[in-house]
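cron nightly-structures :: item 1 of 1
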Amino acid sequence: MVRVIGIKITDRIKETGLVQKALSDHRGVISTRLGFHELSNEVCSREGFMVIHLAGLTEECEELFVRLNGIEGIFVKEMAFSHGPSDAPAECDGVTLLGALVPRRDDLGLQVQALLTTYGCVIRTRLGVNEVYFGEPAGLIILELAGDRTQFASLEKALREIEDIAIGRICFPA
């Protein structure tokens, strides 16, 4: 089972120590970790986000999920992957994370890359990791989307139209 969780930290200065402690205590189930926050010459946001790719025993992953949910000031969501059209609403006024599980097939890599290039102006962050999906090698792509929200929905729809790709989404409202 592929497990990806997203974490929104409302105050990095205040809550990051507790989050870091939980992640350190459960480091054995964390395969990949990506953290980001808004940063420019004018702004250093106190709000932060993390994407955690879990790999380990289900019980241990669940322990981490429960522990993180117990920390005040953070929000934890799990990305559920599915094939075909989604019945989940695509509207989101906050941070949107989109995930794609891409089976290792010669014909899919170039097709997915071309699509991501087409929608490159709404992809702020891209993370790719190796994964095993239903016993077969796959690529896991996690995208942080920014900009034109109508393009978010178009990108997700186009990815869902590619046979055998499973898509997941996490939205953290503003």
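cron nightly-structures :: done
The chain has two domains: 3-79, 95-172.
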